[in-house]
User: Which sequence fits this backbone?
């Protein structure tokens, strides 16, 4: 078969029998290279002397030309900076040829693969990653600068800048405002702010290390080259962040490393993005400082409480994955048990007492037992004070433990008189709302003014001095509080009812007696036959 070539002067047919010969021809024609992969002038001349083939053979040549043209057009369009994974197709002259598929090849500067001794470090068939730079003299030029540390030229860096692909550089020394970076033998500069995500000035961490850099500026024909490592780190973080958006969900547990400790909480890097653990979510122990609970660099497992991608904000909780000490409160501190603790906080409504780490109880201001009205707990308590209290209520659901400093009032079992009973009582004390009387030893009753049966405005203190006796009727009792309510107005009703009841019972008794006598007389008459 033959490849038909045309120019403005003449049309000639050159028989190139395989793809390799075609590539060699293009190398000679357009790249002006020499070596194994380039046809010699003598070979080209020999091919030019071949006469035209038969018509059938010419048809085959045209078919091959069409196929060759189609194959070159089938190669996908490459964008500057696009990465490809390929293999070495051959090494010739100043270039390394790589296979792009579709019978197409690209070239890489051979210098990129020379070691310090000047020896080539790759061979045919080796797999490598390369970045497309540009098309030059009809050849697709690539670079591997991000993965190698070759003898790089200014033009190579310029190509990387134009194609927006990274270069590999070694941190040589610290300069005013940043670092000197050596990309091959070319001196470049990286400001402090562009070395990492934090703008680190710790030169000892980086000097002597090799990193990939983005070429931010290429000015004055290479005399002013500014590099940035931060730009690449941010790009990687964005990729990680996009992955996280697909995997993270509220309620799931994630592991990360503590990056920063602040007054309001700590920031945890969970891969590509920082999450915040608020101070209140660090521990079940209240009042602790973040620096007392964790250290920078600690590896922690947390639970996601909230995700807000619009603000790139993730709220985490460390205490959510820790055991809740409050769940043991009902067993360790049952109702009516006596506990000891330390006053940790005073509020208008009461005092908080810490019993153990993670367990606080509240003494309401009404349960402080001061024996007098107080306006604020600070009148009788102060933070740090040891106190003894009694458990009066527990709510695990609300995480509430209520305490009291009042002494427990033990109500003894007292036999209370039945309602309606008429009692003989003795006046103990007259108060504005009524009279307190003693029913028996250890039991008192109360007669309200409305139940006294006296005129409004009567001076009960003069009429019923302490120690005087009076009758009263039981109208209500409260066994739980040991209280008895009495009425003096119902005494007459009670006496009249009792008198009527006695009279009625007497009459019934007499009627029963008469019935018995009547029955006996009837029996005697029957017996005597009267």
Assistant:
């Amino acid at each position: 078969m033959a490849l038909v070539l045309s120019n403005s002067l003449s049309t000639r047919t050159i028989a190139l029998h395989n793809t390799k010969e075609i590539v060699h021809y293009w190398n000679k024609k357009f790249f002006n290279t020499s070596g194994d992969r380039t046809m010699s002038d003598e070979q080209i001349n020999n091919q030019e002397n071949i006469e035209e083939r038969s018509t059938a053979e010419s048809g085959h040549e045209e078919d091959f030309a069409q196929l060759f043209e189609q194959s070159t057009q089938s190669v996908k369009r490459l964008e500057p900076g696009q990465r490809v994974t390929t293999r070495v197709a051959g090494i010739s002259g100043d270039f390394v040829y790589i296979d792009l598929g579709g019978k197409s090849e690209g070239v890489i500067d051979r210098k990129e693969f020379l070691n310090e001794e000047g020896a080539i470090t790759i061979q045919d068939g080796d797999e490598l990653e390369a970045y497309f730079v540009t098309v030059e003299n009809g050849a697709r030029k690539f670079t591997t600068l991000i993965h190698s540390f070759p003898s790089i030229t200014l033009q190579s860096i310029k190509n990387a800048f134009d194609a927006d692909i990274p270069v590999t550089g070694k941190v040589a020394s610290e300069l005013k405002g940043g670092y000197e970076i050596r990309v091959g033998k070319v001196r470049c500069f990286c400001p402090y702010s562009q070395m990492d995500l934090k703008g680190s000035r710790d030169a000892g961490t980086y000097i002597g290390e090799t990193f990939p850099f983005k070429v931010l500026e290429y000015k004055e024909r290479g005399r002013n080259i500014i590099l940035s490592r931060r730009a690449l780190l941010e790009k990687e973080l964005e990729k990680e962040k996009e992955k996280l958006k697909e995997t993270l969900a509220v309620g799931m547990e994630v592991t990360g490393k503590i990056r920063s400790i602040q007054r309001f909480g700590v920031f945890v890097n969970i891969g590509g993005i920082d999450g915040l653990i608020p101070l209140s979510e660090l521990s079940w122990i209240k009042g602790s400082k973040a620096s007392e609970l964790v250290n920078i660099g600690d590896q922690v497992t947390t639970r996601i409480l909230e995700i807000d991608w619009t603000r790139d904000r993730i709220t985490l909780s460390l205490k959510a994955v820790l055991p809740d000490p409050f769940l043991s409160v009902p067993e360790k501190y049952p109702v009516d048990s006596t506990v000891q603790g330390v006053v940790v906080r005073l509020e208008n409504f009461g005092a908080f007492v810490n019993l153990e780490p993670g367990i606080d109880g509240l003494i309401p201001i009404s349960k402080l037992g001061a024996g007098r009205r107080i306006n604020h707990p600070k009148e009788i308590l102060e933070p740090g004070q040891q106190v003894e209290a009694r458990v009066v209520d527990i709510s695990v659901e609300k995480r509430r433990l209520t305490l009291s400093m009042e002494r427990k009032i033990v109500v003894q079992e007292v036999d209370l008189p039945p309602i309606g009973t008429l009692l003989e009582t003795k006046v103990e004390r007259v108060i504005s709302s009524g009279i307190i009387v003693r029913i028996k030893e250890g039991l008192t009753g109360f007669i309200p003014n409305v139940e006294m049966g006296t005129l409004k405005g009567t001076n009960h203190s003069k009429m019923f001095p302490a120690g005087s006796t009076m009758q009263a009727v039981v109208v209500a009792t409260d066994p739980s509080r040991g209280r008895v309510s009495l009425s003096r107005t119902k005494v007459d009703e009670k006496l009249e009812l009792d008198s009527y009841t006695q009279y009625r019972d007497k009459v019934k008794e007499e009627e029963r007696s008469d019935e018995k006598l009547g029955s006996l007389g009837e029996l005697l008459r029957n017996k005597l036959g009267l």
Notes: DSSP finds ten helices and 27 strands in the chain. Confidence is low (pLDDT under 50) at residues 1-21, 28-62, 147-151.
